[in-house]
Amino acid sequence: MPEPLVEMHGISKDFPGVHALVDCHFDLYPGEVHALVGENGAGKSTLMKVLSGVYRRDAGTIKVKGLPVNISTTRAAQRLGISMIHQELNLMPHLTVAQNIYIGREPQVVPSVLNEKALNDEAAKLFETLHLRLDPLKRVSSLAVAQHQMIEIAKALSFNSDVLIMDEPTAALTDTEIDELFRITRALRERGVGIVHISHRLQELKQISDRVTVMRDGHYVDTRPTADVSTDQIISMMVGRTIFEAVPEVPEHPSEEVVLEVRNLNRGRVIRDVSFRLRRGEIVGIAGLVGAGRTEVARAVFGADPFDSGEIFVKGTKVAIKSPSDAASHGIGYLSEDRKRYGLALGLDLETNLVLAAMRRFLGPLGVIRGALTRLAADRQVQNLAIKTPSLKQTVRNLSGGTQQKVVVGKWLTADTEILIFDEPTRGIDVGAKSEIYRLLNDLAREGKAIVMISSELPEILRMSHRVIVMCEGRVTGELTAGEATQEKIMTFATQRASAV
Amino acid sequence: MTKPASPSFSTAVGARLRGDAIQQVLAFGALILLVLLFSFWSPYFFNVPNFNNIVEATSVVGVLALGATFVIVSGGIDLSVGTVMTLSAVMCATAVAKWNLPVPLGILVGILTGGLMGLANGFLIARLKLPPFIATLGTLNVARGLALVIAGLLPVYFPTDELQGMVMGSAVGSVFPEFPLPNIAVIFLGAAILAAFILSKTVLGRYTYAIGSNEEAARLSGVNTVRWKMAVYTLAGLFAGLGGVMIAARVNSAQPSTGFGYELQAITAVVIGGTSLSGGEGAIIGTIIGAFIVNTLTNGLELVNIPQEWQIVATGAVVIVAVYLDIVRRRGRAS
């Protein structure tokens, strides 16, 4: 056995309020592809960011080629031969391929005068040794995402890296592009590069990886040779957790009245032929991994993004939704996962936020806002939702995350919204506030609201939903009733790539 | 295996002929149309003395626009170039008239004044992270006020016409009498060549594009974005300082209450020339064409007796149209 390139032992990392990594292990040998898998939030990216100098570890040791090291910056990691390609690519679209690769270290004729020819020649030579088909002179903005990935790989290797970390490299790629990526990955492996392949697409691990390490909730679970484990075993290692001590509530039977029906919704490669129904008093959970197209569907139904084709029916009538205000007038409300950005006017007070979506109802002659009415309406929501606040004039920025979430809900309730789409309603909310949000959702359903809940947390989906719709790559890959849904079944559907069906 | 595509002529042209390049061709067409229009409209337009007028006016605005090009390519904006120009003119004239410095040193004082104001902009924007629009709106008024204070509210006259002779004479005309291109135009041309060289051939230019294209990516790639942004604003200030010397030479004095409004002309010239207000793309050649368009329009409107106040309205409208075209252009490419 050769000497490992990287050995990480007992790595821990805390962020305010979260143990992101607890006592994690990882090692990497030259000439291997080591897959790192786990659910969203399992700590895969965080662990690799510790290795690549983005974050500093709080505890543990890292050895690179046998020597203990401290990696405090991405530069330090690069000097040790460690490069990471992040999920959000870091390229300058207006510059050419070669200019991007050598940004910050351009060859120069005399100091500060660029040697463009040397730059392009070096890039061409680099592509030749890597067997990449890239034109150094092309502007990055004219290339496809897959080629952006190649540029990042070439850039990483131009630092003579022997450790290459790829965070979800296949997330935005088509099947042929993935084949190309894997071809390059294998070629690099031949050259002795150690590659970390972070992914939650289990099918592809079998194709590309030699070993697989599973993480869960910031903990290390196990490392196995990929050939020795089945996909099912990996799934059960990924989900086998018991942090949800709360007993799932038995969902009550919703009424039969369909209030929202989506038929054959399509948009490019992001939303593919999505259909579903939502009944009065029902909570439908939409499960899936990051990038499955869940938020995209929600935003399309809400009119925030256009769609190519498809029909939307509200209470049996076909409706044309071209903008969020169309959606709101048909009684559809969308509660964004990023409530700070899309859901709230943070600098304004509680009262204003609560009446914002229904302002027209509170206008007197000449468009003057009738303060008495808005106060009354806001006060009713504060009582109704048990919003904890010193006063209606409290600035929303100063309320807690859970309370802010209630304010968004209150805003839509003031606007008489019948259909509520919650996108990651408990993200960034502490456990206590979570259970309050769950109670709120249940109450709303019991009152006859129809609810779509998008969530990446499987226990939350299982606990709350009457029905679960699972998406993968823009498609609905499965639908389960509350009785039949399990984490394993959902994960199987959620990783069901079109090519594997 | 196949050789990785060699830099052929067609790919080079293909890579260039998009976005800003198309806009430059269009702008050049618009300039020709303007010249034709005013030539038919006014009998006083198409002659050498009038072209000299246009060239002189364009040279001053054009030099400001050269600096503004860097700032806008980097994704920023500089509203202070007009009044920084005035402050530089006042400093240049004060140095010569009141401190009795020789003219070449006065020129240096003027240019360095601009550079200093530019450095201040860069510090506020890159180091203190003020939004460029607000920071330079502040320095616009600081420079405007300082110009009045230093000049004591009155124009500062040069004791001799040495500077005017240097800048407004015609070295070309002394060799080719039928072609009296004023020196101010030669200075503008020289400044433009320098600017084009810096923007396309030097590290500063490359990082100007990189910062305008994706500042975070540039930073993560090890580019010291704070330092380079300060350099960009300082360069814009130096060009404004040169503009100040040129405008002072043109009227042989510094007029402390002028200069306001030049920044919009400069920005208009840059945007008409195909430089995107969202940063990352643009070229000096476009800015030169843009500067000629702006000044040909003002000159032509004057000659066809459009009242001054309506000329102001017209140039304001041109700014709006230019910015709208920029947005349409970007939207077209995004889809």
Tell me about this structure.
The complex is a heterodimer of chains A (about 500) and B (about 325). In chain A, the strands form four sheets. In chain A, strands 6-7-8-3-9-10 form a six-stranded mixed beta sheet, sandwiched between helices. Chain A is of the alpha/beta class. In chain A, helix 8 packs across helix 17 (about 485-495). Chain A has three domains: about 5-240, Rossmann fold (3-Layer(aba) Sandwich); about 260-330 and about 420-500, Rossmann fold; about 335-415, no CATH class. Chain A is built from 17 helices and 20 strands. In chain A, a hairpin with a 2-residue loop joins strand 4 (about 60-65) and strand 5 (about 65-70). The longest helix of chain A is centred in the middle third of the chain and has 16 residues, at about 175-190. Chain B has about 325 residues and is mainly alpha-helical. Chain B has one domain (about 20-330): ABC transporter involved in vitamin B12 uptake, BtuC, CATH 1.10.3470. Chain B is about 75% helix and about 0% strand. Chain B has 14 helices and two strands, in the order H-H-H-H-H-H-E-H-H-H-H-H-E-H-H-H. In chain B, strands 1-2 form a two-stranded antiparallel sheet. The longest helix of chain B has 27 residues, at about 225-250. Chains A and B meet through helix 4 of A and helix 1 and helix 10 of B.
Keywords:
heterodimer; A: about 500 residues; alpha/beta; Rossmann fold; 3 domains; 6-stranded mixed sheet; about 35% helix; about 25% strand; B: about 325 residues; mainly alpha; ABC transporter involved in vitamin B12 uptake, BtuC; two-stranded antiparallel sheet; 14 helices; about 75% helix; globular; disordered N terminus
